[in-house]
Amino acid sequence: MALRRSVALALVAVALTACGSQRGGAADGAGAARSATPTYSSPPTPKCAQSTATPTALPSSPSPSASDTAGERQDGPGDAPPNYADNHAYRMQASLSAEQQASGQASAELILAELAKVRKEGGSGEFGVFGDERVEAALRRVGCGEKHGVSVGNGYYAVYTGVVCVSGRVTKDELTGEVHGVYAEPQPGEGPCVENRGGH
Description:
The chain is an alpha+beta fold. 30% of the residues lie in helices and 8% in strands. The protein is built from five helices and four strands; from the N terminus they run H-H-H-H-H-E-E-E-E. A four-stranded antiparallel beta sheet has the order 1-2-3-4, with helices on one face. A hairpin with a 2-residue loop joins strand 1 (151-153) and strand 2. Helix 4 (98-121) packs across helix 5 (132-141). It is globular. It starts with a helix and ends in a 20-residue tail after the last strand. 24% of the residues are buried.
């Protein structure tokens, strides 16, 4: 029994001393010259629907963030529990700077122009909804594909441009687009721009 315990402790000690160790100095050529900039395990999302033109309408203010509304009293029923905001934090969107909002507006204009072509071609199905394939093809024409978290279904679309989210509806009677930040906890499997329909 004592032998097993000694062997187990020795193995744990070896594992702990080896985990995360990295030799520095002259052997690896980097030494103290290493940058303090973190490295990420995956590359950033490529950008899509990027315009070189200035958007026609700039928004007046950025989207609210969790820190902007944390101390404010929420409108609504007076009998809401005190932790209502905490329980619904997963629905929060990242705030956008004025520059991000302007970039997003320019992206939205490009996306809406392509989706308007889908509407002009006609051929909507039941309830005025166009086929998902046609909407996805329109988004691909502005460079937005699967790697951009494109989500399409039942007349709804959402895409992450690499800077902001653009989402809205495209049907026979409706074409909308909203620029917003990514969700804190988006709908699993749908990209960063689709609000979570459940909870956490």
